[in-house]
């Protein structure tokens, strides 16, 4: 059995490894969603004129890892208080969004967001959007599995994120 989850949390390069390394994950694909241009390119998305955001599409086995668990991993990869990008990546194409496919996914995401808001972990409002899934377009091949292709650059890209996550979650994510 396979199901799909789509999460946007800033640079898609930084969002692959935390999911890709979990049991029950078949694939994690970097791509674009939420916009109005069919099959956009990286350059088009970066222009800010397509309405897309960088995201990851996760294909998983719900008997091994639940959607709830994926949402919890998601929160531990992002700054849910920043609606205008993530870490050094700024603008709409880097906004944090959970894209749901079913009403059950929407319910799980909303319940989890509410729990995070009342947890006291953050002193600012949780602003991550929960939106209905739109078409997902895989990014160019050179963006796929970036953490494996260029580990040094991946490490440099994730350093600000790691410092923030460690401050809020107590350990390196």
From TrEMBL:
A Gene Ontology molecular function term of the record: peptide-methionine (S)-S-oxide reductase activity
Catalyzed reaction equations: [thioredoxin]-disulfide + L-methionine + H2O = L-methionine (S)-S-oxide + [thioredoxin]-dithiol; L-methionyl-[protein] + [thioredoxin]-disulfide + H2O = L-methionyl-(S)-S-oxide-[protein] + [thioredoxin]-dithiol
Record InterPro entries: Met_Sox_Rdtase_MsrA_dom, Met_Sox_Rdtase_MsrA_sf
Protein's recorded name: Peptide methionine sulfoxide reductase MsrA
E.C. no: 1.8.4.11
Role summary: Has an important function as a repair enzyme for proteins that have been inactivated by oxidation. Catalyzes the reversible oxidation-reduction of methionine sulfoxide in proteins to methionine.
Protein family: Belongs to the MsrA Met sulfoxide reductase family.
Domain Peptide methionine sulphoxide reductase MsrA: residue ranges: 4-155
Entries under NCBIfam families matching the protein: msrA (TIGR00401)
Keywords of this entry: Oxidoreductase
SUPFAM superfamilies the record matches: Peptide methionine sulfoxide reductase
Matches recorded under Pfam families: PMSR
Residues the record marks as active site: 11
